[in-house]
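Most newcomers find our protein records easier to grasp once they have seen one. There is nothing in a record beyond a sequence line and a structure line. Getting from the letters to the tokens is the skill we practise here. An example says more than a description, so a record of this kind follows:
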Amino acid sequence: MQIFFVETLAGEQRQLLCRWVEYFYEDGRRVHIMTESTLAAQHLDELLWTFSQPSFVPHRILSSAHAGQVAEPVIITTGEAPMDGFDILVFDGPLKLDLLAGYAAAVHFVVRDDSERLQESRLMWQTARDGGFRTHHVSYSSNTRFPSLAV
């Protein structure tokens, strides 16, 4: 399991999230976006339709009550319910290491202009490395160059 720690600014996080999801989708990956609220899920749903004119990322918001066979390659959920059949887990909020089982990779956004979230990300990086996860730092200056995935 590998985790990408992607640096961003708070105002740019969700646009960057959409670009990462688009990258994974175009690479043939199934992506689960985990949010902390219905409002966040709705915002990401709209952004995935509008963030890029030439882009099309088929997705939908899914409640855990509708878990099962999902046709869409990208889903957005609220809360902390892992989903079977998805390769990539993208966190819109704080990274939860205990939710990573079953995924090949995860993306966590390191918000550089929020000192509290930045410190939480630093601690999470150390915990993940100590826990045997392969961690990858994606600096702010290179966050538009996507890694080659060996997942």
In short: The CA atoms of residues 36 and 92 lie 7 Å apart. The chain has one domain: 2-66+73-142. The chain has a mean pLDDT of 90. The first strand starts at residue 2 and ends at 8.
